Amino acid sequence: MSTIVAQSVGITPLEVSLFVFILITAVLTALFRDVLASIVIFAAYSLGLAVLYTFYRAPDVGLTEAAIGAGITTIFLLLTIAKTTRPATDELFEPINWPAVGVCGLFALVVGSTLFAFPGVGDPNSPVMTNPDVTVHYIEESYAETGAENAVTSVLAAYRGFDTFGEAVVVFAAGVSSLIVLGREVFTS
Amino acid sequence: MSDDRADQQLGEGVSRQQPAYTESQVIMSSVKAVVPFVMTYGLFMMFHGGGSPGGAFQGGALIASVFLMIAFAFGIDATREWLSNTIVVGLGGFGVLIFGGLSLGTIALGGNFLEYTVYEPVFGSILGLDEVGFVKYGMEAVEIGGIAFIVAGILMGLFFLLAAGFNPAGVHDGSMVATDGSGENGEVRSDD
User: Fold this and answer.
1) What domains are there in chain A, each with its CATH number?
2) Which residues of A, range 135-164, sit inside 8 Å of B by Cβ?
3) Is the CB of B139 less than 8 angstroms away from the CB of A71?
4) Which of A118, B17, B143, B185 is packed most tightly, with the most Cβ within 10 A?
C-alpha cells in the first residue's frame, strides 16, 4: 500500500470524504427497509460516484452517471414503486442477512486483493500513459484523423463506432420491448 | 382494471401507492425557471460533444429529462396528451435509421463499417469537404442524428410508458387492442 501512495499524487481529504460518502450511501441503500428511502439514497450514491469520476478526470463518465444514474434511473425507480405495492413497516433497517454479508465480504476481499497491482492515480509510468500502440496513438492521432478535439468522442463515434451502434440500438430495443411487455401500442397519446 | 381498487386494501402490511398529481406552485415555478437552462445545456452537450466533455448520450438524456420535469410539475397525464407519440417514435426511429444508414452506407460503397472516408470520392465535390471533414461531420451526424435522437426519444417514451403501466387488454387475448390516440386505455389507466 505504501508504494502505491508513494507513486501517486497522494489521497486528498476530498477523495477520502467522497469514498466515505459513497461507501455509506451504498451500505444504506442495501440496509434501508423502506424502498422509497433506498431509492433516494441510491440517487445520492450515484451523485457521489459522478463527482468522483469528474475528480479523476473522467468528465464524460461523470456526466453520464449524473444524468442516467442519479437522474433518469431514480425517476424510473420512483415510477415503478408508484405502480407496485410497497410493504408498510415500522422498522427503519432491513434485518442483516449474515451469510450474504459473508459471501459479499469474501468476494470484496478477493477483488480487493488485486488493488495492489494497480498503478497509482496519475502515475506517469503506468501502462495507460506509456503504451504507444493504444493510448498514445489515440491521444496523438485522433485529432488529425477525425477532426474531433474530444478524443473520447472520436473513439465512440469513429474508432469504435460499431460498439456505439450496438448501444444505441439496445436503447431502441428497450423501448420496443417495454411496449410489448406492457401490452401497449403507443408511448404517449 | 376494476380490481385495482380492491388491491388498495390488499392486506395488513401492503399499501398501494397513489401517484396522484398534486398541483404545487413551488414545483411548477422552479421547473419553469430550470427548464430553459437544462434544455440549452442538453443541446450544447449534444452539438458540442466533439469538442468538450459530454456527448450525444448525455445530451439526449438531458433533453429527455426536460420533458420528465415538465411531466412531474404539470401532471403526467396532461404532458402525455400534449407530447405527441409521433415525436417520441419519430426521434427513436429516425435515430436508428440515420445511424444505420450512415454506417451501412459505407459498406455499400465498399468500405468498412462506419469508414466515413469512403463517402469522400462520391460526395466530396458536392459538399466541398476533404476526407477529415467527412469523418468530422459524419461523426457529428451519428452523434446528433443517431445517438441523441434515440436516447432522447426512447427515454421520454419509457417514462410515459412506465407511468401508464401494464395494459392487460393488450396482452391477454393475444392481439393488441387498438388505442387510437388518446383512446380509452389512456383514460382508464390515468387514475390508477
Assistant:
1) 7-95 (1.20.120.1200), 131-189 (no CATH)
2) 144-150, 152-154, 156-158, 161-162, 164
3) no
4) B143
